[in-house]
C-alpha cells in the first residue's frame, strides 16, 4: 500500500507542475496530508488485525521466553494464580504443594510446619512440641506442666498425679521426690510436711488459748496417728506387696507403671523404665518379652503396666510397636491420601517406564535377605481416554480392567518374595510402566491409581503400605500433517482476476488444533514457474519467485487464489511448496 500512496503523490505532483498556470498548486499540501493519513491508517489497521496473535499462559503455567509455542507448567512447590505469568511463585512459609500446574499452595496440616519456601511437603512437629493450627512456620513448645512424646502432635499431654514438668518443651514428666506429693495435674510437687506444720499450728493455737480439753483431745489424735503410721511402716517392710507411707496420710499400694522399693513415701516413687513393665503393687521390674507390646498402648514407654502380643503388621522393641514397612520414596506416599497423591508425569505417545522410584524401609529386624518386598498395582487407572475425564474416580478402579495398560517394573536386581544373597528389601526400587501410548488431548484430568508394597516372609505377608498416585499425561507438540488428497493438481483460467479461488482449501490434521489448544496457519515456502515454449516442451525455472509468486495462499483458511494477472504465454503452470504450522 505504501508504494501506491507514494506513486499517487508523485503523479499528482507532476500533474500540478505540468500545468503552466499553476491552477492546482494550492491542492499540493492537501494531497501530501491525505497521503500520510492514508498510509498511517493502513499501517495501524494491519498492525491491529494481523493474522497471528499470542495467547496468555493459563494459571498454573508460565513462559519466560518469547516466540514459544507452549507454556511451561509450574513444578511442585510452586504456584501461579494469574494468567500470562513469566515465572511461578514459590510456596511461602507454612505452605507446600505436591502437584504441578497448581494455582495455589496448601497449608501444612496440624502437627506439621514448613520453615522454608518452595516445599513439596511439611515437616512433623518434634517431640516436646505441637502444632495446633494449620499453616504453621514453626511448632510451639509444650508449657511447663505438660509434655509430648509423639511427633506430629496437635496438643500437649498433662502430667498425671505424682508427676511434674518444670520447664517447657519436655518429652516426659518427672516423678515427685521423697517427701513430696502432687494430687493435681502437671504442677509442682508439694512437701508432705505441710500437713505436720498445719497440726503444729493448731497445737500452738490451742495451747495459747488454754483450751485444755481440746488440747488434750488433739494430743490423743496425734498419738493415734503416730502409732498407726509406725504400725503401717512395720507391716510394709514385712509383706511382699510394696506399700508406701506419706507420714500423715493413709498407707497405699504402689501404682501401675511405677516401682516402689522399701522405704518409698508415695505410690509413684520410681518409673518402671523402658523395656520393663510394672503392674500395680509390683515388687520387681518385669522385662518385656520379645515381640511384646507394652500396655496401656498410648502411655509413656517408661511406665508400662503390662504386655500383650505385638499387633499384626508391626514389630515391637522395648514394648513400642512400629510399622513393619514404611515408604522411603516418594515422600508424598507417606500420607497415602487420595487428596494429596504422589503426582507423576508421562509424555503422550510414550510406552516406557516413567516417574520416580518407589522404595520402602522395613523394620530394622526385617531388612535382610530372609525378607522380600513385592510391589503391585492395587487400584487401577481406567480405560484410555475415557477414565481421565471429569467423571473419573480419584482413587482409581477397584477391579483390574481387561485392557489394563499400567504395571510396575524393577530397577534393581534385588526383587522377589525372598531376597538374593547380599540383598535386602530396602534396596528394591520400582517404577511405573505403560505398554500403551496415551493421548494428552483426550484427557481433561489425570489418571488415578494406587501402588502397594508388601513385605513377605516365608511366603506370608508381614507388612503392607499403599500410595495413591495421579498420572498426568503431558502434551507432546506433534507437527500437523497435511491431508494428501487436498494438495492435488489444480487448474485456473488465465483470465481469472486476482483473488479468484483455485479449488478447495488445503486441509491438515493436528491433534492440538482438533482439541482447540492451538491454531493452524498456512504459507507458501517456494514458488517455481514452468516457462512456456512454442518450439519445445518448456522447462521449470530454477529461480524461486517468492515473495512475488502469481499464486497466493490464505494463512488462515488454506485457500489458494490468484495473486496477480496470469499469462499462459509466459508461464503455463506453477510448482509451489506449502507449509502448515500450528501455534498457541
List the keywords:
Immunoglobulin-like, 41 strands, alpha+beta, single chain, elongated
The number of distinct β-strands equals 41
Main β-sheet, spatial strand arrangement: 27-29-32-31
Please state the second-level CATH architecture of the largest domain.
Sandwich
Report Rg.
44 Å
Question: Which percent band covers the strand fraction?
Answer: 25-35%
Q: What is the share of helical residues?
A: 10-25%
Shape: elongated
Describe, in short, the structure shown.
The protein is of the alpha+beta class.
3D structure, described in words:
There is one protein chain. The protein is built from five helices and 41 strands. It is of the alpha+beta class. It is 15% helix and 28% strand. The strands form 18 sheets. Strands 27-29-32-31 form a four-stranded antiparallel sheet, with no helix packed on it. A four-stranded mixed sheet has the order 28-34-33-30, with no helix packed on it. Helix 1 packs antiparallel against helix 2 and helix 3 (194-209) runs antiparallel to helix 4 (212-238). The longest helix has 27 residues, at 212-238. It is elongated. Strand 15 (180-181) and strand 16 (190-191) form a beta hairpin. The chain has four domains: 2-48, no CATH class; 192-317, no CATH class; 324-474, Sandwich (Immunoglobulin-like); 481-583, Immunoglobulin-like, CATH 2.60.40. Mean pLDDT is 79; it is low at 42-51, 228-241 and 245-250.
Amino acid at each position: 500500500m505504501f508504494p501506491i500512496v507514494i506513486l499517487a503523490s508523485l503523479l499528482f505532483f507532476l500533474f500540478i507542475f505540468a500545468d503552466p498556470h499553476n491552477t492546482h498548486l494550492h491542492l499540493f499540501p492537501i494531497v501530501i496530508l491525505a497521503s500520510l493519513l492514508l498510509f498511517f491508517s493502513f499501517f495501524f489497521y494491519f498492525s491491529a488485525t494481523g493474522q497471528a496473535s499470542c495467547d496468555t499462559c493459563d494459571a498454573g503455567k508460565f513462559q519466560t521466553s518469547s516466540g514459544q509455542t507452549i507454556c511451561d507448567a509450574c513444578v511442585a512447590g510452586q504456584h501461579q494464580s494469574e494468567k500470562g505469568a513469566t515465572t511461578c511463585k514459590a510456596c511461602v512459609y507454612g505452605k507446600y504443594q505436591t502437584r504441578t500446574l497448581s494455582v495455589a499452595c496448601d497449608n501444612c496440616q496440624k502437627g506439621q510446619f514448613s520453615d522454608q519456601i518452595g516445599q513439596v511437603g511439611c515437616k512433623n512437629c518434634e517431640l516436646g512440641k505441637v502444632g495446633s493450627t494449620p499453616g504453621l512456620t514453626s511448632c510451639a513448645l509444650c508449657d511447663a506442666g505438660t509434655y509430648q512424646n509423639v511427633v506430629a502432635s496437635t496438643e500437649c499431654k498433662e502430667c498425671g498425679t505424682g508427676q511434674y514438668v518444670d520447664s517447657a518443651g519436655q518429652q516426659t514428666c518427672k516423678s515427685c521426690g521423697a517427701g513430696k506429693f502432687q494430687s493435681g495435674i502437671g504442677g509442682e510437687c508439694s512437701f508432705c510436711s505441710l500437713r505436720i506444720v498445719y497440726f503444729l499450728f493448731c497445737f500452738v493455737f490451742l495451747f495459747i488459748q488454754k483450751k485444755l480439753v481440746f488440747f488434750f483431745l488433739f494430743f490423743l489424735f496425734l498419738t493415734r496417728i503416730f502409732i498407726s503410721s509406725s504400725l503401717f511402716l512395720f507391716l510394709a517392710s514385712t509383706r511382699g506387696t510394696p506399700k508406701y507411707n506419706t507420714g500423715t496420710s493413709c498407707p497405699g499400694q504402689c501404682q501401675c507403671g511405677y516401682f516402689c522399693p522399701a522405704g518409698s513415701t508415695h505410690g509413684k516413687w520410681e518409673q518402671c523404665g523402658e523395656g520393663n513393665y510394672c503392674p500395680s503393687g509390683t515388687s520387681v521390674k518385669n522385662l518385656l518379652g520379645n515381640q511384646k507390646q507394652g500396655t496401656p498402648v498410648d502411655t509413656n514407654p517408661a511406665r508400662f503396666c503390662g504386655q500383650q502380643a505385638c499387633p499384626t503388621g508391626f514389630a515391637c522393641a522395648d514394648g513400642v510397636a512400629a510399622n513393619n514397612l514404611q515408604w522411603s520414596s516418594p515422600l508424598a506416599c507417606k500420607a497415602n491420601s487420595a487428596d494429596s497423591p504422589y503426582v507423576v508425569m508421562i509424555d503422550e505417545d510414550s510406552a516406557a517406564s516413567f516417574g520416580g522410584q518407589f522404595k520402602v524401609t522395613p523394620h530394622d529386624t526385617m531388612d535382610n535377605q530372609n525378607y522380600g518386598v513385592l510391589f503391585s498395582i492395587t487400584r487401577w487407572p481406567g480405560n484410555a481416554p475415557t477414565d481421565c475425564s471429569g467423571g473419573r474416580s480419584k482413587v482409581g478402579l477397584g477391579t483390574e480392567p481387561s485392557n489394563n495398560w499400567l504395571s510396575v517394573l524393577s530397577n534393581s536386581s534385588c526383587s522377589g518374595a525372598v531376597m538374593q544373597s547380599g540383598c535386602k528389601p530396602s534396596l528394591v526400587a520400582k517404577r511405573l510402566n505403560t505398554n500403551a501410548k496415551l493421548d494428552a488431548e483426550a484427557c481433561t484430568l489425570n489418571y488415578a491409581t494406587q501402588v502397594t508394597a508388601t513385605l513377605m516372609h516365608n511366603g506370608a505377608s508381614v507388612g503392607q503400605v499403599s500410595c495413591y498416585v495421579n498420572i498426568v499425561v503431558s502434551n507432546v507438540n506433534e507437527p500437523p500433517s497435511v491431508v494428501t488428497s487436498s494438495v492435488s493438481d489444480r487448474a485456473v483460467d488465465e483470465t481469472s482476476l486476482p483473488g479468484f479461488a483455485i479449488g478447495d482449501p488445503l486441509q491438515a490434521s493436528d491433534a492440538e488444533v482438533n482439541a482447540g489448544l492451538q491454531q493452524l496457519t498456512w504459507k507458501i515456502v517456494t514458488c517455481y514457474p514452468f516457462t512456456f515454449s512454442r518450439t519445445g516442451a518448456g522447462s521449470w525455472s530454477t529461480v524461486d519467485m517468492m515473495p512475488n509468486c502469481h499464486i497466493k495462499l490464505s494463512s488462515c483458511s488454506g485457500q489458494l487464489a490468484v495473486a496477480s494477472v496470469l499469462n499462459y504465454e509466459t508461464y503455463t503452470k506453477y510448482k509451489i511448496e506449502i507449509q502448515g504450522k500450528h501455534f498457541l
